[in-house]
Structures are given as C-alpha cells and as structure tokens.
Amino acid sequence: MTLVANAQVRVPFQDCDPMRVVWHGNYFRYLELGREALLAELDFDYREMERQGYAFPVVDTRMKFVASAVYGDALTIQSRLDEWENRLKISYRITRDSDGATCIKAHTIHCAVGLEDGQMRFASPQCLLSKVQVWQESQS
After folding, report:
1. Cα distances (Å, whole numbers) of residue 8 to 21, 53, 71, 73
2. pLDDT at res. 99
3. Is 4-134 a CATH 3.10.129.10 domain?
4. In a 10 Å sphere around its CB, with 0-12 CB exposed, 13-18 middle and 19+ buried, how is residue 110 labelled?
5. pTM for the full model?
6. How far apart are CA 61 and CA 90, in angstroms?
7. HEC profile for the chain?
C-alpha cells in the first residue's frame, strides 16, 4: 500500500513571468504544498517532527518540466511516499485540472537531522517509522 495525498493550488498572478507562465522556481513552493498534505496524512507534520526532536531538510531534488502552467490554472499536486526507512523520498506529479496534462514530475529526498545536535541521522527515527506503520495498519 502506498501513501498518496493530493493538494490543490490555483496559479496566482505573482507566480508568473511576464508571459503569464509559472516561473520555474515557484514549482518548488507547489511541491511544499504537496509535501505538507502528505505529511498531514501521515500525522507527521512539521510541528510533530519538531516535537519529536527532528527536522527533515531537503538534501536532493529533481524536477522535470513537462508542460507549462499559466496564470489562473487549477493544479493538483499529487505526492507519494516512496521511501522512509533510511530517508524520505517523496515523488510528485503536478497536473492541470482542466485537461489532466502533467506539468511537472519531481522528487525530493530528505534526511533526518537531530534538532538537539544538528547531526544527520543515517536511518529514519523510530517516531517516523511508527507513524508509517500506524498508517499502513489503518489501510488494512
């Protein structure tokens, strides 16, 4: 069973270049919206991470631009949890609601960092693994 969550955004004017096309750097903000939806589904949002003593910064990312989104487009950001045992790998697909066209394919990789010492962990902490396990059991 795969954890998937969706988020929506309507492209605001300020996210666009002079041709009213989404400026490429703004897609990273849209990925964040998708990541927040996914983490909420897992019951491991940023407040819970901090409460447990961890941050999960982005350490690597890849984005493929497939089709343009423009001012006013309604977009769906689908986020999928692909890896969680040693790191978090989240894959994304951003589609235009009007025609279902894929605009972006991307992934981000996150590693756990202890807030008390700032050190990277080379395995996911038990608090995250437990959240994934609870989610998996709830889907059975």
Report:
1. 18, 30, 14, 10
2. 98
3. yes
4. buried
5. 0.95
6. 10
7. CCCEEEEEEECCHHHECCCCEECHHHHHHHHHHHHHHHHHHCCCCHHHHHHHCEECCEEEEEEEECCCCECCCEEEEEEEEEECCCCEEEEEEEEECCCCCEEEEEEEEECCEECCCCCECCCCCHHHHHHHHHHHHHCC
pLDDT band for 125, please (50, 70, 90 cuts). very high
Give the model's pLDDT for residue 1: 78
Q: Which pairing describes strands 74-83 and 88-96: parallel, antiparallel, or unpaired?
A: antiparallel
Residue indicated by tokens 């984005």: 63
Token couple for 31 = 């990925």
